[in-house]
Amino acid sequence: MKSMTCKQLGGACNKVFTADTFEEIAALSKQHGMEMYQQKDTDHLKAMEKIQALMATPEKMKEWFTAKQEEFNALPNI
Q1: Backbone torsions φ then ψ of 56, nearest 5 degrees
Q2: How far apart are CA 52 and CA 71, in angstroms?
Q3: This protein's superkingdom (predicted)?
Q4: Of 78, 72, 64, 76, the residue nearest 21 (C-alpha)
Q5: C-alpha distances in angstroms, 78 versus 23, 24, 38, 71?
Q6: Which domain covers residue 51, as residue numbers?
Q7: Which pLDDT does position 65 carry in this prediction?
Q8: For 14, which of 25, 39, 41, 53 is 20 to 30 Å away at the CA?
């Protein structure tokens, strides 16, 4: 298992997510993001705007996603 924070995954807080795979941790982060969106959390909304801007350019989004996946893979197991 590995852990990453919301901030490490492009979010706005220090909430820690723990999972066996990058796909699992990305899903946890997405769920958290949806919760923060529903709560209209200002900091998370700003972080989401940055991700949405990346999504406008598929190449940049793929590069960002790959970098996050590589960061996850490089983490030690806990």
Answers
A1: -65, -25
A2: 21
A3: Bacteria
A4: 72
A5: 17, 15, 31, 15
A6: 2-74
A7: 93
A8: 53
Task: Give pLDDT, residue 67.
Answer: 96
Question: 65 is written with which tokens?
Answer: 């996603």
Predicted model pTM: 0.91
Low-confidence residues of the chain: pLDDT under 70:
none
Alpha-helical runs (H) found in the chain: 22-38, 42-55, 58-74
pLDDT value of residue 49: 95
Spatial contact of 8 and 25, defined as CB atoms under 8 Å apart: no
| pLDDT value of residue 71 | 97
Asked if 73 and 22 touch (Cβ cutoff 8 Å), the reply is yes
What pLDDT, on a 0 to 100 scale, did the predictor assign at position 9? 96
**pLDDT score recorded for residue 1:** 97
The number of distinct structural domains making up the chain is 1
